[in-house]
Amino acid sequence: MLPLHALPLENGDLLCDRFPRGISYAPSIQLLQLSKTWSRPSLKSFFSVKNPTEDLSFADLEVATIRNSFYPNDDVLERREASKTALTSERLGQTNVAHFSCHGYFNFETPSQSALLLAGSRDGSAINLEKCLTLGDIFALDLRQCRLTTLSACETGLTDLTSLSDEYVGLPSGFLYAGSPGVVSSLWTVDDLSTAFLMIQFYKNLQNSEHYPNVAIALNQAQLWLRNLTQKELQEWILRNKISLDATVKMNLRRWLNKMPDNVKPFQSPFYWAAFCAIGQ
């Protein structure tokens, strides 16, 4: 329930500063041991669900940038196309990376009804679970080709506090059980803009296997990068990586950044980066 990697230490460091090879989590020893028996090094094919509820300002930017590095082995369900019926077992069964850029929520009363929200699943504040990808649905998936599942969504790493079973119940354990040895998930309602930047850098790291040989290291280094990124460095990074921003977003972002001195770190607070955890292998 807590981002242990962001724990403050007496000298002002955070715990993640002491572990350059990353910090990862596991729902249980059994699932961790199981995940370590799966050898799936390939990161060739990419599948994503992108902004199915059409209210995430930077999900399009995030997925569009990431999928370019997987082209032509990329498959994306966008907005209204990202329905539960379109999320077929064939699509998920063939991918090496499954990336969900959407809303998620944890049901504290009935953890098995925790879900990722897909197209048509929300009407105002009401959620139609029949149109969501619930934890029950996830347990039934076949992800034996999948190396990584990324839940770029809110509250996807929360767990049942009242359970006294041998492992916690939550979305990450469902994806591990389904066959994905690595999962990245979040502990709270994350900021859309900082999450987009974090995810883009995370995937850039992950594809540089010589320097970032596993998910925990790639995520750890992306989090340190975002935490220490200055206003000036961010603008240079956007230009260097040809991040495609629409005119309105570009204008608003530039206006926001220009109010800061060059050396200010806009995403230094753990709120912006610490929600995401590497779980499993």
Structure overview:
With 281 residues, this protein is of the alpha/beta class. It has ten helices and twelve strands. The chain has helices spanning 29-36, 59-68, 89-94, 135-139, 171-178, 192-206, 215-228, 231-240, 247-258, 270-273; strands at 24-25, 46-50, 74-78, 97-101, 104-105, 115-116, 122-123, 126-127, 133-134, 148-152, 182-186, 276-280. Strands 1-12-11-10-4-2-3 form a seven-stranded mixed β-sheet, sandwiched between helices. Strands 5-6-9 form a three-stranded antiparallel β-sheet. α5 (171-178) links the parallel β10 and β11. α2 (59-68) runs parallel beside α6 (192-206) and α6 packs across α7 (215-228). The radius of gyration is 18 Å and the shape is globular. The mean pLDDT is 87.
Topology (SSEs and partners):
Blueprint: E1 24-25, H1 29-36, E2 46-50, H2 59-68, E3 74-78, H3 89-94, E4 97-101, E5 104-105, E6 115-116, E7 122-123, E8 126-127, E9 133-134, H4 135-139, E10 148-152, H5 171-178, E11 182-186, H6 192-206, H7 215-228, H8 231-240, H9 247-258, H10 270-273, E12 276-280
Parallel strand pairs: 1-12, 2-3, 2-4, 4-10, 10-11
Antiparallel strand pairs: 5-6, 6-9, 7-8, 11-12
Helix pairs in contact: 2-6, 6-7
